[in-house]
């Protein structure tokens, strides 16, 4: 009888990559099953990301110091000079690719609800703290990646110049500490399946279909870059500058590249990659001691430095900026390039959050990046390995005398590269333009918003007319409201988002919700009375309405004519301009414009405040904002003067426009409610009522919903199995 032990095959343990894939797909399925309920797993995903980031910066610091410090000045000078030269060449190629890839992102309509970022200048970047490690511990604590990298390189160069036993003791100690950090990282990596499961579940459960659609723009463009760089650009450089042929480069490295793709790690097969290159040398009778020893030194030394795989992944940053509708401007491009170069020294899990923060892109975009890494990390490491192969071969060929530049091959290679990017990115842009053509939904969102509260019975009158119940002698507005049981509220029909008719023909808005709150407080019904444009003060004086609850700016001129409540909200003066009208983004640029014309609605006194800063400008009174968005040959306007809060809502309906704040200061204007008959009792009552609504959070809730759009976003329903298929929950 055969020994059962010898015949029974041992079951192989499941690989980490398999576990990660299982965690990914299981998380997606759970997210689709639970929908928004899976969002509670986000905290688990955030904890996992924090653990991943924990050891990255210390590991990179000591790795750079040790690898650079081990070289002697005599042995490494030429190798380092040539290595830096070719590394710079490869990184320049990478930066060019990162700048070219966003051209695949199509122009698409994008506008967002109001944000304070529309009217407040971004904080100035302190480039000294960003790049100069005057306090390395502060740079580490604040994740100032460029400064940390520069500090590590300089310390490594300093260690390189130390001789004797002290150097070895220092390097061995740092190396041992780095190994300890690596062990900690391995422990964290074992949690990857669980972390990916939590992130995938929370993302799949809360991500909308339009977000999934836009994510394809990043994945497809990055895949195009990896394929072209890995299988054409880098092999072309090798064959054009060294004796090695294209087929032989992949003949000796393909098995290792496949292993790298399967494991998602370069470092685990770095020794095998070194042996592959030595076998390649032998094929060409170049397996000299200099080449073999140079490979042993150069490959591990180059590993901590940026590679094209890591650098190209930073295309996620311009993608994220495009995704949120605020693409990186030409003026920000130098900062983006410089920060990307130095941030590429570290793992993307550290560099990407830093870049998002630097360019003021919402940090929650990082969640999308983490989910995408399950796919991108596998192709990223293949490109990274090809980068190491190319850097090593070019550096050693130049150092050891078998470098030969074939200009004809380089010229042909450049031409083919240009053609490859054109024939891939142009169709990709067309495809994305088609697939994303219906992705913009914010115009439908604001057009379909409904009142939060419908607290009292109401009706909307077709036109303005005096109150049919006349005031009695010595009777106040407030007393008549209580006697009649009705409050008449004046409103403008097109003051989005304060008072307007939605797609269903319902009167909605911030002011309309507030009117229902007022009716509830008075325990009366409401008659909404439309205001005739240009005649609000006289209609109020003619007793057409008891109170006006659209967005009325309070000013000294109006205060002399009308009685106002206490302000309930401060808004910021701004312009609505075309997306391409960059000259109105700052005061300096707008001041240089020889002349321009703006439109304003109703308030000439407010327009004059703006013209005080721009004497070369002209203001034209409009009867409606539609005159601005539907301009004729006889009326050409460069901007619409309004509040930034209202302007942001208008851009939702007209996403080809944007908010600009060209004023040298942030000029705020208070919104208040004018009351009829200059009735101080009514004004005082409304003032006290406003104070109560501020304290109990009512005004804040209405502001979040109508101005910021937050309440809508929080309540947006997502498809799930338990809700839409099984109907277990509402």
TrEMBL record:
Its main location: membrane. SUPFAM superfamilies: Periplasmic binding protein-like II, Proton glutamate symport protein. It comes from the Bacteria. Coiled coil: none annotated. It is a multi-pass membrane protein. This is Cation:dicarboxylase symporter family transporter. Residues 486-710 form the Solute-binding protein family 3/N-terminal domain. The keyword Metal-binding does not apply. Keywords: Membrane, Signal, Transmembrane, Transmembrane helix, Transport. It is found in: Membrane. The chain crosses the membrane at residues 20-41, 47-66, 86-105, 145-162, 187-209, 215-234, 255-274, 305-324, 336-359, 379-398, 410-432.
């Amino acid at each position: 009888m055969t020994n059962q032990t010898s015949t029974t095959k041992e079951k192989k343990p499941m690989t980490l990559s398999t576990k990660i894939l299982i965690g990914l797909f299981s998380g997606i399925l759970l997210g689709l099953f639970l929908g928004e309920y899976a969002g509670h797993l986000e905290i688990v995903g955030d904890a996992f990301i924090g653990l991943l980031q924990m050891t990255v910066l210390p590991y990179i610091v000591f790795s750079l110091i040790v690898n650079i410090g081990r070289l002697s000045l005599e042995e490494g000078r030429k190798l380092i000079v040539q290595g830096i030269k070719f590394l710079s060449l490869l990184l320049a190629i990478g930066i060019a690719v990162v700048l070219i890839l966003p051209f695949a992102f199509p122009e698409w309509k994008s506008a967002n609800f109001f944000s304070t970022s529309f009217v407040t200048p971004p904080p100035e970047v302190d480039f000294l703290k960003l790049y100069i490690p005057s306090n390395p511990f502060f740079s580490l604590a604040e994740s100032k990646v460029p400064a940390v990298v520069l500090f590590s390189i300089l310390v490594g160069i300093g260690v390189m110049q130390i001789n004797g036993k002290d150097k070895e003791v220092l390097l061995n100690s740092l190396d041992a500490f780095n190994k300890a950090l690596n062990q900690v990282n391995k422990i964290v990596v074992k949690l990857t399946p669980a972390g990916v499961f939590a992130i995938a579940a929370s993302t799949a459960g809360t991500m909308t279909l339009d977000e999934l659609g836009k994510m394809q723009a990043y994945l497809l463009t990055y895949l195009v870059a990896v394929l072209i760089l890995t299988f054409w650009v880098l092999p072309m450089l090798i064959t054009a500058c060294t004796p090695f042929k294209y087929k032989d480069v992949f003949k000796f490295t393909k098995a290792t590249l496949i292993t790298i793709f399967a494991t998602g790690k370069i470092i685990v097969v770095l020794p095998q990659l070194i042996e592959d290159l030595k076998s390649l040398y032998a094929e060409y009778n170049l397996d000299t001691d200099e080449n073999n020893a140079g490979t042993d030194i150069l490959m591990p030394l180059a590993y901590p430095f940026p590679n094209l795989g890591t650098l190209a992944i930073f295309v996620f940053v311009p993608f994220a900026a495009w995704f949120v509708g605020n693409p990186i401007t030409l003026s920000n491009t130098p900062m983006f390039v410089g920060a990307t170069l130095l941030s590429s020294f570290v793992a993307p899990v550290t560099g990407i959050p830093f870049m998002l923060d630097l360019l003021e892109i919402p940090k929650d975009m990082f969640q999308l990046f983490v989910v995408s890494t399950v796919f991108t990390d596998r192709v990223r490491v293949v490109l990274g390995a090809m980068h190491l192969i190319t850097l090593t071969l070019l550096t050693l060929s130049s150092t050891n005398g078998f470098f030969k530049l074939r200009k004809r091959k380089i010229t042909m290679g450049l031409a083919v590269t240009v053609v490859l990017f054109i024939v891939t990115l142009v169709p990709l842009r067309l495809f994305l333009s088609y697939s994303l053509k219906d992705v913009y939904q914010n115009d439908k969102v604001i057009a379909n918003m409904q009142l939060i509260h419908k607290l009292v019975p109401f009706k909307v009158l077709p036109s303005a007319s005096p109150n049919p119940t006349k005031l009695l002698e010595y009777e106040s507005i407030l007393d008549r409201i209580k006697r009649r049981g009705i409050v008449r509220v004046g409103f403008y029909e097109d003051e989005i988002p304060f008072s307007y008719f939605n797609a269903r023909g319902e009167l909605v808005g911030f002011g309309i919700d507030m009117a229902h709150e007022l009716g509830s407080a008075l325990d009366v019904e409401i008659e909404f009375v439309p205001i005739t444009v240009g005649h609000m003060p006289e209609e109020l004086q003619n007793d057409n309405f008891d109170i006006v609850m659209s967005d009325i700016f309070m000013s000294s001129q109006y205060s002399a004519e009308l009685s106002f409540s206490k302000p309930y909200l401060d808004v910021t003066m701004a312009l609505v301009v075309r997306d391409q009208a960059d000259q109105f983004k700052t005061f300096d640029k707008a001041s240089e414009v020889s002349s321009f014309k703006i439109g304003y609605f109703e308030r000439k006194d407010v327009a004059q405040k703006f013209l005080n800063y721009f004497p070369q400008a002209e203001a034209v009174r409009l009867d409606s904002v539609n005159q601005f968005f539907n301009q004729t040959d006889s009326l050409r306007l460069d901007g619409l003067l309004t509040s930034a809060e209202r302007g942001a809502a208008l851009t939702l309906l007209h996403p080809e426009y944007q908010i600009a704040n060209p004023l040298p200061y942030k000029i705020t204007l208070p919104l208040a409610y004018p009351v009829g008959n200059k009735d101080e009792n009514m004004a005082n009552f409304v003032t006290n009522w406003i104070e109560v609504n501020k304290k109990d959070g009512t005004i804040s809730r209405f502001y979040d919903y109508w101005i910021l759009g937050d309440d809508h976003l929080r309540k947006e329903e997502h498809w799930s199995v338990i809700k839409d298929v099984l109907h277990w929950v509402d």
